Amino acid sequence: MGNLIEAKNLCINYGENCVVHDASFTLAEGEVLAIVGESGSGKSTILKAIMQMPGFGVRVSNGTIDFDGKSLLDMPKQQMKQIRGKQMGAIFQNPGAALNPIRKINIQFLETLNSHERISKKDAYKRILDVFESLNLKNGERILESYPYQLSGGMNQRVAIALSMIMRPKLLLADEPTSALDVTTQAQVVDELLKLKNNFHTSMIIVTHNMGVAAKLADKTAIMYQGQIVDYGPSQDVLRNPKDEYSKRLLESIPKLIVQDREEKTNGKVVLEVEGLSKTYGKGKNEFQALKPVSFKLQEGEILGIVGESGSGKSTIAKQIMRLENPTSGAVSTKDMVLTQLIPSEFPKLYKQVQMVFQNAIGSFDSHMKIRASITEAIRNITGEKDKNKINEKINSLMEKVGLTPEMADRYPHELSGGQCQRAAVARAISLNPKILICDEATSALDVSAQAQVVKLLQQLGREMNISIIFICHDLALVSDMCHHVVVMKNGNCVEAGKTSEVVANPQEGYTKNLLNSILTI
Amino acid sequence: MDKVKKRLIVFGILAAILILFSLVAENFAPNDPYETDVTIARLAPGGDYPLGTDSLGRCVLSRVLAGARTSIFSALALVAITFVFGTVVGIVCGYFGGIVDSVVMRFVDILLAFPSMILAIAVAGILGGGLFNAMLALGLTAWTVYARLARSHVMAIKEEDFIKAARINGNSKVRIMARHLLPNVIGPLVVNATVQIGSTMMGIAGLSFLGLGVQVPAAEWGSMISEARNYFQLAPWCIWGPGVAIIATIMIFNCLGDAVRDVLDPKRKTVE
User: CB 3.0–4.6 Å: which of A358, B108, B207, B225 could bond B213 by disulfide?
Assistant: First the structure.
């Protein structure tokens, strides 16, 4: 079989900035190529260059891309448009982006079909339902009669895949197709893409930062770092025996599912006790119980994992403990006070003992203030320290503690990378010497290497400063790698809780098993 | 120094010069701005009257200079007061929500339900003529725009993580509103305020035209234009003088507003 895509010595620019250097790869018919790497490594740029969409601002400054033996770069615009429409399909990270939110799904499918060929409504429906069936999408008619907002994110993504497959393209370009989804939905979407590969022999280029997705789907994998392909070859070779130094480090940072008993490291003293905590939003008809009564204990020096899909009530627990919201019922208490009984004027006492790190690192700092000003605010408000020099000294030492330079404190949040900013957020949280730190998806928005660094930092701080950590996360593999105890949440219920090693090795609940099975390993 | 700051300084200085000049402008008038002489009515520009004379033979340039203080200060003061009041109300309503918010916003709805000029005419009519009453009448509805704008922006950002972070870092509610919410919502408000300077000038002029604002024969740019409209085809220079003055003033304040907005946005600083 010939090569569908052949790229040689590609250099791609945004304006004057060269973001991809000298990239070469080939893709045979029916083959799947995964491009993996950190954010900013130039992965998506390659997809944009292949699509040659006007308005992306990408310019190929050197090298060639051939599609089916013809050069894409020299092709007249009209012909390129034809190829894009009929022979290439694309899916994106945000499934909503591909679907018009105010039109029913069926209209969007018919529109796509009608713009390419004359087809009767009956034939069109048959063809659409055929595609749905081959992708294992059940209740095709019901889906077609729905609006995008009536379907879940995962379902929208699967519909978007079906939409891009309706013209039976030879090549499917997927830009982070699973990154916005929960682990269980991610597993479904990956299965669906596998079916495409097996049933239709569609060639695919998948851009992802999830090595598990690459390992499961791709025949070939390219690892990118700072605009260059540093490792390229059959997926098995690249992901199991990376040759390049960077690839090795990257693959080492992936959290792996492990069973390890960490009980001996904690001393059994309880620092935080949550009893029957629940939260109901709204009233009357709009009433929604986001959190049904949960109870758990946090021991001194341990890391407690709370795992679950989005909407399972994980973050709601954090908000109740921090008293950002008022819980509907239940009690949260530390050794010397009942947090749920505090009145607002007593909250500083709570803030002194319990601090929190948020998912969106950059968004958790006021964009109008330098990092130093934000941390200063925390120290001054809670500890009452007024001496500017003392505060600055403290901030400098904190910055070094979290692996940043003191100079970085004098930047604005958007001038730091996500990983750096999250470290700064950790620095702010520990500036008050809290006993308990709540991390709400603190590493979920980071790529694997930054995630590994932040996790390591948290573990180290937990040991050195004797901080107990509640680690809220949707990645069970990561939790198994760092947490002593785990609480598994679903739809506001605590479905399983216990020692991480026991839950992982011997899950009792179907949902936990499902979560474990959804983890994609290399 | 970057471009944005330069622009702020340039327009800041221009605005300052304009304000200072308007304070002393009266003294530069070549003729008595109030002296009428029908024999020289509607003289074309030239000679003793650089910008011509109006239908009562008054020197247009002198009247423009004499009216500068009234026009600029009344508009500026009104915009400043409504801006501050409306923004504070909007931020407080947006942040706290609940019953206070509902009550205040329904009151705002009532005020917005009337065409603002008609309401102003009614209020000024009840209170009687005079510059202060005219300003009061216009200010009655002007603040609602700022309140609405500030409230909607606050509602959008108050659930963001940095506000939660500010709370768990022990900031008081007042401090969160002043230090974290205000800088994040002020951009569009400042731009709105600079636009309002122009329309406020026109509003005061409109009331003056009806005899409810600045009283005859006091000079004021808006009322000068209103008067001159009647014989616009015979003596267009009567509109040129105050018209150019209004345009220049509004332009300077608009550019100043844009520059302030840009300086307040930290993301712009690193991009440029």
Answer: B207
